[in-house]
């Protein structure tokens, strides 16, 4: 089996078989990361360009590491050090780079749909590393991988995504992927930060954290994305932490241990308390490691079978 598309633009519309293929492929690459020699040759001779028009640390480094582990030639691009700062368009940037005979493009951009646009104007495989508030598919995949690794299966797993759902591309990719894999998905946050139409997709909506904690196996806690918000969506950071901050005290009232996730970077003691982030309940560092394996799997499947 192979992926139906030459690109990974989002998890919306992907089949359960395709998602399972990526997760299963990542298992093999996760084992490679524990070896003394972590490099394998599948993408030897291929050139991958990382087009990052938005700031990134974890995602950019994770992709670069995954590409190098697969023996690809890697070119990393940042908007601040490019002709974009002189007014060059995304289309011209992409076509100029492709004229240098690039095989794959990993793109992060503030505009929703930018990855889809790129896939229409270049011949290279395109991987979406986050497009505005739309999707962040590899983050959704690594979150699902981490949950499957922890619990053994995603079918029937009860996962709640907590925080700023409206502005979160991570939330969208998680919702699409988890629902397709048979998980029970809920969200929790202020009414001003949750889209009204979510209930139509089979997602349960909560506005009180204490109500949802006893009902779930895992909480995926989102960063408060001030850079994408308009003012006035909640009174203050202190108020947000009081009502929606996930703390050890709150999760200790659950009838069983709850797994804590976070896509990073963490606003410690805002959406997630520092002691809980560093506790035995947290799989945040596992998410980071698994992110390299997932990105290796995606690059491999697109670069060798599509």
Describe this structure in words.
- The protein is of the alpha/beta class and 306 residues long.
- It has two domains: 16-135 and 288-305, Rossmann fold (3-Layer(aba) Sandwich); 137-283, Rossmann fold (3-Layer(aba) Sandwich).
- The protein is built from eleven helices and nine strands.
- It has helices at residues 16-32, 58-69, 90-98, 114-121, 137-151, 169-180, 209-212, 237-244, 248-251, 274-277, 284-305, and strands at residues 47-52, 73-78, 104-109, 125-131, 158-162, 184-188, 204-206, 218-221, 259-261.
- The strands form two sheets. It has a five-stranded parallel beta sheet with strand order 7-6-5-8-9. Strands 2-1-3-4 form a four-stranded parallel beta sheet, with helices on both faces.
- Helix 1 (16-32) crosses helix 5.
- The radius of gyration is 19 Å and the shape is globular.
- The model has no long low-confidence stretch (mean pLDDT 91).
List its traits.
306 residues, alpha/beta, Rossmann fold, 4-stranded parallel beta sheet, 38% helix, 15% strand, globular
């Amino acid at each position: 089996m192979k992926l139906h598309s030459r690109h990974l633009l989002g998890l919306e519309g992907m089949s359960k078989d395709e998602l399972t293929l990526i997760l299963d492929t990542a298992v093999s690459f996760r084992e490679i990361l524990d070896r003394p020699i972590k490099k394998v040759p599948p993408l030897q001779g291929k050139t991958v360009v990382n087009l990052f028009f938005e700031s990134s640390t974890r995602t950019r480094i994770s992709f670069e590491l995954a590409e190098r582990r697969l023996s690809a030639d890697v070119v990393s691009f940042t908007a601040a050090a490019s002709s974009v700062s002189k007014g060059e368009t995304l289309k011209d940037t992409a076509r100029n780079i492709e004229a240098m005979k690039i095989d794959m493009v990993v793109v992060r951009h503030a505009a929703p749909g930018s990855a889809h646009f790129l896939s229409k104007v270049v011949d290279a495989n395109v991987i979406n590393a986050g497009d505005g508030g739309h999707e962040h598919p590899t983050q959704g995949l690594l979150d699902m991988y981490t949950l499957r690794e922890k619990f053994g299966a995603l079918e029937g797993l009860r996962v709640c995504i907590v925080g700023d759902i409206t502005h979160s591309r991570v939330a969208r990719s998680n919702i699409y992927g988890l629902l397709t894999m048979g998980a029970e998905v809920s969200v929790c946050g202020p009414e001003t930060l949750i889209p009204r139409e979510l209930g139509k997709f089979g997602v349960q909506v909560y506005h009180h954290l204490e109500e949802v904690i006893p009902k779930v196996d895992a909480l995926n806690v989102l960063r408060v994305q001030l850079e994408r918000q308009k003012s006035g969506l909640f009174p203050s950071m202190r108020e947000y932490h009081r009502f929606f901050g996930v703390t050890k005290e709150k999760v200790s009232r659950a009838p069983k241990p709850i797994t804590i996730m976070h896509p990073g970077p963490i606003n410690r003691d805002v959406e997630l308390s520092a002691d809980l982030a560093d506790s035995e309940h947290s799989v945040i560092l596992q998410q980071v490691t698994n992110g390299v394996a997932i990105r290796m799997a995606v690059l491999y499947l697109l670069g060798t079978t599509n």
